[in-house]
Amino acid sequence: MPASSSPEAVTAANVEAALGRLPPRLRRGVAWLLSRYLGRILLGTAATCIRIELFDRSMTIAAQFFTSVFPLLILVVSWGVGPGADAVADAVDMPEPTRTILDQASQTSDSAAFGLVGALIVIASATSLSRALTRALAAVWDLPRPKSALKSAWRWLAVVIALALAVVVVRALSSLAAEVPPRNVWELTTALLCDFAIAVFVPWVLLSGAVTPRHLVPGALLFAVTMLAIRPASSAWLPRALESSADRYGSIGVAFTYIGWLYAVSFGFLATAAVGRVIASDRGWFGAWIRGEPPAHAD
Hints:
- By secondary structure, the protein is mainly α.
- It has one domain.
- 80% of the residues lie in helices and 0% in strands.
- Helix 4 (54-79) crosses helix 9 (153-177), helix 5 packs across helix 9 (153-177) and helix 9 runs antiparallel to helix 10.
- The longest helix is centred in the C-terminal third of the chain and has 37 residues, at 213-249.
- It is globular, with a radius of gyration of 22 Å.
């Protein structure tokens, strides 16, 4: 790809054009800010979020997560090969009417709930989430649009399974850690480490190692810290919102509430990935240190 057509070159050209429209006194101040580290990070993040269509992709991933991971969890519960119905219901703050449906699924025989063909369809459909994530992450890291191939199927499946397990495992491990004093410290640390591991694992696997874990660390750490704020907020808001939606609109209300919550998480995941990409790619000494390169110059 010619340098003139790269996203960075296009962004630089747009910035130069915008600066040219500013009054001279204001132009110098803005140009100075954009030449500093913070200015470069803010500008690069804004350009990346616009380029990847952050809002649209976040909604796509939220909807795909709901239609992929939740059926997979119900499949696991009905087959009795994973966490029980209560563990799954507690992990997602499921309201009572929906818990009843999940309990019924877990008590139904395997052949009645999910046959082999039905299970294969659920698993195959669940990989649509991985493909959506692959496209989004490739856009974040400015990689060629990935092509779907059977040789990548194991990657799709591994990510879906990891995300499904994370829904239950993070809550379970955090609850266990909360029993160890000091309670808040170990509970938050466990959740932080789990979210960090997921945020590194998912793009590394889906992008076939094109982006090294070292480059993924800044975005993963930002996502884990962001989730420290999202989790308490969702714990306070989500159960009440689900109960209210179930009472007013039934199952469809519950579905919309879950998608709204997943949208917030998806938005945080992609936004922090965008910031992490800009930090890891920055020309300053910190970006060079993250990449393991000698710095070109100090900020």
